[in-house]
Design brief:
By secondary structure, the protein is an alpha/beta fold. It is built from 13 helices and 13 strands. The structure holds L-homoserine.
């Protein structure tokens, strides 16, 4: 039976996911028996369409790339049952989707509107897969318990370091290990800027390049002031270390105070500035921080360059385990959604 999917938001991530699903349609079916249908897409700007028998994904992508509203989608199903213009909540509540991929714009401080989208999905018996940090950063426990109550899944691999497996690694292959600390480079934009500054580029030019390359958020304040990394730290603390911390418990400092002179000083000391996110179990409880640190070149994290992310789990049974990979991007974040969809399919 096809896994029916509704997409809330049809921007970079939603379209990236659709491109992967199309490219790998046969492979996913042969290797994992994963057979899917996109039954609905709802986007406040790009339009909305729903057909319970499934939509043609190539047509959806073409409309989006041509800048034509999804409301103009020509449904070829024989029962004339397509519906247009449904908003996110109506799509979530009334579509026949098994899983809602929540990929719309979200305020990371309030978690809205994604939190309401997740609640509506759980209450109508649908799984949520999301790369939005809001719901997990603001109310992970609430989301998780509502999903459990309705016997559905709340899957969030894409919230931390895109499709590089972090959440699923900690909860899957590393199950049984306890974590005494998690430390790493959790924001690609700032790592890219610091690397470019070391190569002699000015901060403003490096930031502009990071935006052009699609690493930075639309408003890059979240990147350079450490809010994006802070949201990831909160999620990791809650999900991986069972520590229910919130923003007020995270010490946060961005990279805007790092000057060319400080970079030169680090270089002279055989070191490099990195914006590090850290969660540590201490005798006083959990300590969490995002701040620039001067890392000696001999340290593994010093060699992580440009927009790459890296994270070291300090475990009781396996010592340190470090994972390095892409933290952003259309296909990379699209993949984070696919990996969770496959996990749900395997558990179905
Ligand atoms: N803007 C983020 C980064 C990616 O630069 O890492 C999404 O969290």
């Amino acid at each position: 039976m096809s896994h029916k999917i509704a997409l809330i938001g049809f921007g970079t991530v939603g379209q990236g996911l659709c491109e992967i699903l199309l490219d790998k349609e046969e492979y996913l079916n042969e290797k994992y028996g994963f057979d899917w249908q996109i039954v609905a897409v709802s986007d406040p700007v790009k339009g909305s369409v729903y057909c319970p028998d499934g939509l043609n994904v190539s047509k959806l992508l073409k409309l989006a790339s041509d800048g034509i509203s999804l409301d103009k989608y020509e449904c070829k199903c024989d029962k004339a049952q397509a519906r247009f213009g449904w908003d996110a909540l109506k799509t979530i509540r009334e579509s026949n989707a098994d899983t809602v991929c929540e990929l719309a714009f979200t305020n990371v401080e309030t978690g809205q509107p994604a939190i309401d989208h997740c609640k509506a999905a759980f209450e109508t018996g649908k799984n949520i897969v999301t790369s939005n940090k809001g719901p997990a950063a603001v109310d992970f426990a609430g989301m998780q318990s509502l999903a459990e109550k309705h016997n559905v899944k709340f899957m969030i691999e894409g919230t931390v370091v895109s499709g590089t497996p972090i959440i699923n690694l900690a909860g899957g292959p590393l199950a049984g290990c306890s974590f005494s600390s998690i430390k790493g480079i959790l924001n690609g934009t700032t790592n890219y800027i610091l690397c470019q500054m070391e190569a002699g580029m000015e901060y403003e030019t490096a930031l502009q390049k990071a935006q052009e390359l699609g690493y930075a958020e639309a408003d890059p304040t979240g990147d350079v002031e450490g809010y994006d990394a802070m949201a990831k730290v909160i999620i990791l603390a809650n999900v991986v270390m069972d520590a229910p911390i919130s923003a007020k418990e995270v010490e946060r400092e961005g990279i805007t105070g790092i000057t060319p002179a400080m970079i030169a000083e680090a270089k002279a000391k055989q070191a490099r500035w990195k914006l590090l996110g850290t969660i540590e179990k201490t005798t006083d409880g959990i300590k969490a921080a995002v701040k620039p640190e001067m890392v000696p070149l001999s340290h593994p994290l010093a060699g992580i360059m440009d927009a790459t992310n890296a994270l070291t789990f300090a475990t009781d049974l396996m010592g340190d385990i470090t994972i390095v990979g892409a933290g952003a991007g259309r296909i990379e974040t699209g993949y984070s959604i696919l990996t969770d969809l496959i996990a749900i399919h395997r558990g179905m």
